[in-house]
Amino acid sequence: MLAFKGAAVKEEVCAADERSVEVGKEEQLKNTKTEMDEVREENDRLKTILAHIIKEYQHLQKQYFDVVQQEQSKRPLETTNPSDVEEPDELVSLSLGTSSTGQKKEDVISTKKEREEDGKGLTLGLGCRFEGTRKRSPDEHESNLCSDSSSEEANEEEPGEPRPPTEILMMSLGTGDDEVPQQLPVKKARVTVRARCDAPTMIDGCQWRKYGQKIAKGNPCPRAYYRCTVAAGCPVRKQVQRCAEDMSILITTYQGTHNHPLPISATAMASTAAASMHMSGSSASEQGMGEAIGSLSSSSAAITSLSGLNFGLLGSTLSARQQSSYLPIPSPSPASSYSTITLDLTAPPSSTSQLSQLGRFPWYSSTRFNFPSSESTVPASWSNGYFSHESRAYHDRPSQDSFCQSILQKAIDTTAAPNLNQHPLADTIAKAITSDPNFQSAVAAAVTSYVGDHRSRNGREGVTHGPAED
DNA sequence: CGCTTTTGACCTGCGC
DNA sequence: GCGCAGGTCAAAAGCG
């Protein structure tokens, strides 16, 4: 009996436990529902705020366009007559993160492009672009590579006709040494990068061979001359010199066009840099490299982290003080046939410029900065696409590749989820990215290749940039 | 041994 | 024409 009673008590206890567990679950469920409701409300609030911000942004954009149009109507000849395109000083602004004062016609042009992209819905990102880009047959691609400049220009004139980054780079392959004589009358493109770097030279994925060193006037630090040895006969050269005023700043000047595929690190940066140039206003959009930049469309617009860079042609966006400060050494062959683009990666991106850039580009996103760190992988669309061969060719550079891939992954993530929030995070990441010497030099190398290519293709009709005038 | 770096000489363009 | 400065060449030296 006692045993039976004990068993009955046990059953009651178990039943009570079950009831208490059920009650606990119900409470938990209730709590979860409550939390969900709160989150939902928060989400609604955020949506409302976002809608308000977008509305304000559109309003401001409209006002800006109105002003731009008024300016444009005031100076109709400047934009309609190609012969008048070259300004007296032939200075072109390619500022990234620097806001140029005064509304120039370059801004008008860039604004046009912005509007074109706005009209496209701004859904074109790295990831979708590579897969969605009009596929060319190998023959088509080859013919494009071998086609004369006129046909290429025709292609470029198509507004919004995107080119995959590697295609842009491959275009430079068509401008080998055989075209060098054609380039002679044309001003050569140079890209100068100022970056803080402790190493003797920046690692940019390319192989360089030092062929000379010289003490330049006005700078006690010797200037080193390097030649690209990735491919035989590659005409690309770079000069490396430390800043006289700040020895921690390495001034690297790239010159020429690679006649070989760039390493993936530089290749990827080409797209980002080009896109950034484009986004920055690509002031020379119609004449000069901006034309090619425009063809990039927003292929990698997500790398707006670059917006913090001071990316301008010498003398165009820099004040007199800045010029003396940014260019403590005499510009190489100032009177020769060079145009110079300066990438100043030493100055931290200003938050204001960041925000202004964000405001200008509504597809800017920094919401999903999912840096995959070491296990980052190139998206399938990439490995199947234009980058595959280069990945193999440069498999021995894992650190650079992973770094590059991280940025690329971020680019895809950010383009995939357009948003307007979290500017501080973008600022932080922008600083992190732009402070990386690998990135800096890769951008420079890529831009050099890119600009040089465009120049060689444009030939005589190409606009000239920078202070180096004939 | 082959490749890279060093370094003095040479070339070239520009200003006076 | 001369001098200067930047840029390049090429032989010698260094390095793995």
Automatic annotation (TrEMBL):
Subcellular location: Nucleus
GO molecular function terms listed in the Swiss-Prot or TrEMBL record: DNA-binding transcription factor activity; sequence-specific DNA binding
Biased composition regions of type Basic and acidic residues, renumbered to the chain: 103-120, 131-143
Biased composition (Low complexity): 93-102
One Pfam family from the record: WRKY
Region named Disordered: 22-42, 93-170
Keywords for the protein's UniProt record, in alphabetical order: DNA-binding, Nucleus, Transcription, Transcription regulation
Name of the protein this chain belongs to: (wild Malaysian banana) hypothetical protein
Native source species: Musa acuminata subsp. malaccensis
